């Protein structure tokens, strides 16, 4: 039983693996910071949000005063059902989430997000910062495009 509890605790911590990176980048002050989140579902190609990391991350960021703008190709209706629209503004278009945002946070590795228009992303964001929770981007390429990049298990580029 203790092993199962430990596994559950680790799984819950993993859902928030981006949180310290985001807090660190903004010097622990998320009040008033606007973040664009791409991906709400548990995994790509589904609207399933059971145990989705996005839920824990949205709740934690909202509790710290961040303003959230989110998109998912399939799970927006489920996000509304779960009342996440009370904590995050939901958008039908992923690029619309970027307008006025201080950074982009990629939570689910949808194919739609794998090869985005980085020029468009830079133009829409207040500052060119990407938190890649799925390591779907090449850190060197992102750096060369002028972004600050945070991946999982990768050094800051």
Give an account of the 3D structure:
This protein has 157 residues and is of the alpha/beta class. The chain has one domain: Rossmann fold (3-Layer(aba) Sandwich). 35% of the residues lie in helices and 16% in strands. The protein contains seven helices and six strands. A six-stranded parallel sheet has the order 3-2-1-4-5-6. It starts with a helix and ends in a 7-residue tail after the last strand.
Helix/strand/pairing category: alpha/beta
Radius of gyration: 15 Å
Low-confidence stretches: none
Biggest sheet overview? 6 strands, parallel
Strand content: 15-25%
Keywords:
single chain; 157 residues; alpha/beta; Rossmann fold; six-stranded parallel beta sheet; 6 strands; 35% helix
Short recap of the structure:
The protein is an alpha/beta fold and about 160 residues long. It has helices spanning about 1-15, 20-25, 55-65, 75-80, 110-115, 120-125, 140-145; strands spanning about 35-40, 65-70, 90, 105, 130, 150. The longest helix has 14 residues, at about 1-15.
Task: Summarize the SSE layout with pairings.
Layout: H1 2-15, H2 19-25, E1 34-38, H3 53-63, E2 67-71, H4 76-81, E3 88-91, E4 103-106, H5 111-114, H6 118-124, E5 129-132, H7 139-144, E6 148-150
Parallel strand pairs: 1-2, 1-4, 2-3, 4-5, 5-6
């Amino acid at each position: 039983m203790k092993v199962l509890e430990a596994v559950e605790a680790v799984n819950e911590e993993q859902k928030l693996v981006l949180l310290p990176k985001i807090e660190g980048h903004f010097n622990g002050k998320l009040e008033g910071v606007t973040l664009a989140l791409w991906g709400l579902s548990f995994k790509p190609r589904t609207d399933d949000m059971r145990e989705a990391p996005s839920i824990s991350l949205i709740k934690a960021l909202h509790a710290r005063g961040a303003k959230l703008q989110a998109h998912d190709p399939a799970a927006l209706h489920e996000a509304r059902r779960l009342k996440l629209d009370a904590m995050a503004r939901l958008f039908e278009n992923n690029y619309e989430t970027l307008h006025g945002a201080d950074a982009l946070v990629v939570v689910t590795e949808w194919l739609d997000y794998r090869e985005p228009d980085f020029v468009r992303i830079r133009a829409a964001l207040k500052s060119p910062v990407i938190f890649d929770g799925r390591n779907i981007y090449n850190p060197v390429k992102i750096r060369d495009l002028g972004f600050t990049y945070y991946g999982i298990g990768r050094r800051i580029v």
